Amino acid sequence: MPRGEYLGEFEQMILLTVARLADQAYGISIIEELHGRTGTEPAVASVYAALDRLERRGFVVSKVGESTPERGGRAKRYFALVPAGAVALHRSRNALDSLWEGLELDTDGLV
């Protein structure tokens, strides 16, 4: 893979969450799913910045849904993983698996 095409950890987490949520992947649902699965609660701005970056790279697409009264007339922006995003996730996983292969780390006494 050419330099600069690897996914960062947060980008991987966002793409995996979008894939998991399928047609219900929008900002707040992504944050809630990340929080529920990892215990961390990323900032809304960080999630949208990552989604915008991933969309520019061609790994997700977005569409605007219908406006809803409970959101003050604002519409949700939904995201979907596209094949290039799935390929990027697999490449990242394969690279990390290769680096981990045969490596044993001593975590005793580490914080």
Folded structure, characterized:
About 50% of the residues lie in helices and about 15% in strands. Helix 1 packs across helix 2 (about 25-40) and helix 1 (about 10-20) packs across helix 3. A two-stranded antiparallel sheet has the order 1-2. About 15% of the residues are buried. The chain is built from 4 helices and 2 strands. It has a single domain, classed as Orthogonal Bundle (Arc Repressor Mutant, subunit A), CATH 1.10.10.10.
At the fold tier of CATH, the topology name is Arc Repressor Mutant, subunit A
What assembly state would you assign to the polypeptide chains in this entry? Answer: single chain
Outline: globular
Q: Which whole number gives the mean pLDDT?
A: 90
Please, what is the CATH homologous superfamily?
Winged helix-like DNA-binding domain superfamily/Winged helix DNA-binding domain
User: How helical, in percent, are the residues?
Assistant: 40-55%
Task: Briefly characterize the structure.
This protein has four helices and two strands; from the N terminus they run H-H-H-E-E-H.
How is this fold's topology laid out?
Blueprint: H1 9-21, H2 27-38, H3 44-56, E1 60-67, E2 75-81, H4 83-100
Antiparallel strand pairs: 1-2
